[in-house]
Design goal:
The chain is an alpha/beta fold. The chain is about 15% helix and about 40% strand. Keywords: Coiled coil, Metal-binding.
């Protein structure tokens, strides 16, 4: 096996329109394609992140609630590399997104912070 990179990350949302607005308008991701899968009563929106990676946003009629404890087993959070965390945090706050205080990684001395998507998925911004 020769893994090259992460191809995509799939996120299931409870309210498609709210999550679509969050990922496109608030985070600024670019829609690549949107399809309605009639057999699943489900939307799928492919999103571009800076021309490199892809997030797939899914809707389903009645998805089970997500375990939001960040220490629960499974995917812990989604992290984005960013150049200016102070500017990004201010932009999020201007859009009424609750953002944790900026912290410093004790090993790298880099700034980072967390906020959540509309379903409580933890999202990290990490300044590089």
């Amino acid at each position: 096996m020769n893994l090259k990179k992460i191809h995509h990350i799939a996120v299931i949302c409870s309210n498609y329109q709210v999550s679509k607005d969050f990922y496109v308008r608030v985070l600024g991701l670019t829609p690549i394609r949107e399809v309605y899968r009639e057999d699943r009563d489900s939307y799928k929106l492919d999103l571009e992140v800076n021309g490199q990676y892809q997030i797939e946003l899914f809707s389903f009629p009645t998805p089970p609630a997500r375990v939001n404890d960040p220490e629960a087993a499974g995917l812990r959070h989604l992290a984005f590399e960013i150049e200016n965390i102070d500017e990004a945090v201010q932009q999020l706050k201007d859009m009424q997104v609750k953002v944790e205080d900026i912290r410093i990684d004790p090993w790298t001395q880099k700034k980072f912070t967390f906020f959540s998507d509309p379903d409580g998925l933890p999202i990290e911004l990490y300044e590089c």
